[in-house]
Amino acid sequence: MEVVMSIWAFFQNNVLTKPAFFVGFIVFIGYLLLKKPVYDALAGFIKATVGYMILNVASGGLVGNFRPILAGLNQRFSLNAAVIDPYFGQAAAQAAVESIGRSFTMMMQVLLISFLWNLLLVFCRKLSKVRTVFITGHIMVQQSSTALWMVLLCFPGLNDPGVVVMLGLLLGTYWAVSSNMTVGATQELTDGGGFAVGHQQMFGIWAVDKLAGRISSKGSKKLEDLKLPGFLSIFNENIVATAILMSLFFGAIMVILGSGTMHKMDSSFSATQNFGFYIVEKSFNFAVYLQILQLGVRLFVSELTESFQGISAKLLPGSMPAVDCAATYGFGHPNAVTIGFLFGAFGQFLAIIGLIVFRSPVFVITGFVPVFFDNATFAVFANRKGGIKAAVIVTFCSGIIQVLGGAFAAYYFKLAQFGGWHGNFDWDTVWPVFGVLMNNFKYTGVGICIVFLLVIPQLEYYFGRYRRGDYFKVVENYAAVKKTE
Amino acid sequence: MEACMLKVVAACGSGMGSSMMIKLKLQKVLKELGIAADVKNTNAGEAKSTASQYHVIVCSESLRDTFKSAEERGTAVVTLKNLLDEKELKEKLLQAGVAELEKKVTV
User: Fold this and answer.
1) Which domain holds residue A464?
2) Rounded mean pLDDT, A19-35
3) Are A273 and A245 in contact (CB under 8 A)?
4) Does the CB of B52 have a partner CB in chain A at under 8 Å?
5) I need a surface site. Which of A90, A234, A293, B78 has the fewest CB within 10 A?
């Protein structure tokens, strides 16, 4: 017995509490289960583990790069700031979890339980009315990270297994139900494309789909007729867009703080370096760390996504994969993507000015992912139902909501001290509400959230646009239930 | 071996989600076509600046303009409406002449 215990202790100390090895271990086992050769499994183990270690380097770099600026803001204006972006949010959540001495491996454990719970809900679809399996690996990592911190904050006394199981059920239900909510709208947009959205703004897509048709005025123009200036296309490139956004925001902040404060706060700012070049270097550093972070995530997530897709296709034929929101962009005009980004950004900037004017304790910095991907998606869906007018209004409002919700969440969940909040639409609306419920009503709160989520597909089944007999047919045979407009 | 293999890259905005889905479909469809290829996925910016290293770029129709210059310089660009539709992918790959490209590369 003692031998078993010491082996377990060894495993726990070296693998279970070390996320990098835990990820590698899971990939290794997964490969063996899929009957791949051992050398493939080993290669998978190495890629996953190294990928996670790269991610660690980048997360640390991101938070570290931000620290002197945060400290300066804190000292001069007693203000906290958060970049609303899922990568910043993930890095901030990891820093927060580790700051209270808990293990971040729980993130991966939560992810696995949530995925399995999602599968089980689809397996029992006659009862649960859930049709979609969420398989977008990098999103699952980000959401598990942020949600893990929320639970640890609301239940500081709960032990690791308790946290993992409880959050696994909540997050898995969210993945299943929210992606299921996009089935009708996505099938209509793609004319039976056979996928749903499994990303960060599914409640948003549902709402846009309901609202856009009402906003449109008669004979309103479609985005296709619009001519946009060519320079906007540089925002299609991730690095360029991030570097520009970061330079704008951090440049402004650092100019306000002044070179004196920055010298005091940041030892890497040498006496001979020009302030302007320092600002550009500092801002570009964010783009650097984001690129490294994404490289790391890409390495270990590609292993995950591949096996998730394999598992769900094998175990649950007829279920619908819920994938990245960018899969919808091919069904909208390229202008829709640009317009969504542009008006989302207007909305965000306006709301940020609002935060300053009304002296919010948290300052928000626009992150690239939410402002681009959420709003581009909304614009694609809105344009189809309501033309330009709907796309513009919807994304402008979404930008405002993202900032206000993000500022509240970064403050309430104490992540502003670590400089980031998740920032995508559902995480500025639905999840802060979940968090407040959890914080105030504890286990009852979690229960309310799960029941609320589980009721949604039932309502859709009985009262939705594709109800009862059509409900499962939308997935299996769209042409048969297609509504002519 | 590596040097004389058809090189295909799937690209999307951030190089994380949809390019990963394209990559999975690519691997499946190319196997069905009996074409051995090295398939990667990355973000649009990187794919654009390293386009000359690939024979084929596959992406969403919304990114068509990003790869105009790569296409002019001779890399085959395949743009998809539905990233998950294997039939569309197969047809467009054949249209772009992957079979001929593979023969040219492996000789």
Assistant:
1) 78-287+317-475
2) 85
3) no
4) no
5) A234
Q: Which residues pair with A420 in a beta bridge?
A: A83
Using alpha carbons, select from A321, A37, A59 the residue that is nearest to residue B20: A321
User: Which of B17, B23, B66 minimises the CB distance to A138?
Assistant: B17
Structural domain span for residue B68: 6-106
Q: Give the model's pLDDT for residue A220.
A: 64
Position A241 in a domain: yes
* A297–B64 C-beta distance less than 8 A: no
Long-range Cβ pairs for the range B22-25 (8 Å, 24+): B22/B58, B22/B59, B22/B80, B22/B83, B22/B89, B23/A302, B24/A305, B24/A306, B24/A309, B25/B83, B25/B84, B25/B86, B25/B89
Token output for A164: 């993992």
In a domain, A180, yes or no: yes
pTM score, whole prediction: 0.91
Interchain CB contact of B50 with A (< 8 Å): no
* Residues of B labelled as active-site residues: 12
DSSP structure class, residue B77? E
Q: Looking at CA atoms only, how far is residue A181 from chain B in angstroms?
A: 19
Span A438-448, pLDDT tens digits: 999 999 999 99
DSSP B75: -
Give the residue carrying structure tokens 């390495």: A299
Provide the token pair at B46.
Answer: 């990187």
- Per the domain annotation, does B83 fall within a domain? yes
Tokens of B33: 């076509």
Looking at this predicted complex, what is its ipTM?
A: 0.82
| Residue B36 belongs to a domain | yes
- State the Cα–Cα distance between residues B39 and A306, nearest whole angstrom: 14
- A15: helix, strand or coil: helix
pLDDT for B1 equals 40
**B1 inside domain:** no
Contacts of A463 (CB under 8 A, 6+ apart): none
Cβ(A395)–Cβ(A340) below 8 Å: yes
The structure tokens 């690239």 sit at A368
Q: What pLDDT was estimated at residue B107?
A: 66
Cα–Cα distance for residue pair A321/B20, rounded to 1 Å: 13
Nearest CB to A294; choose among B14, B21, B80: B14
Confidence of residue A17 (pLDDT cuts 50, 70, 90): confident
- Report the alpha-carbon distance of residue A432 to residue A438 in Å, rounded: 10
> What single DSSP character describes residue A374?
I
Which phi and psi (to 5°) does residue A53 adopt? -65, -35
